[in-house]
Design a protein that fits this description.
Layout lengths: L6 E5 L6 E5 L6 E3 L6 E3 L13 H19 L1
Antiparallel strand pairs: 1-2, 3-4
The structure holds zinc ion.
Amino acid sequence: MRTNRIYFRQTCAVCGRGMRVQIELLGREVRCAHCGATQSATDGGQTAWTDLSIDERIENLERQDQQLAVRQA
Ligand SMILES: [Zn+2]
């Protein structure tokens, strides 16, 4: 089975717990699985990509994910 789902980590602004957010949802409303709060998905200052467009940020995340996959292989 093959999946193309790529996630990034985000900390919930309400309960502070970690969420896994699909990169497709970057910039959209997402719901925290722990407390149910909705907030906009963001890669939140952990990266310096805030000047980039959503598309560019998704590309960067995909690249980062591929590098991780290679390292784990
Ligand atoms: Zn929460």
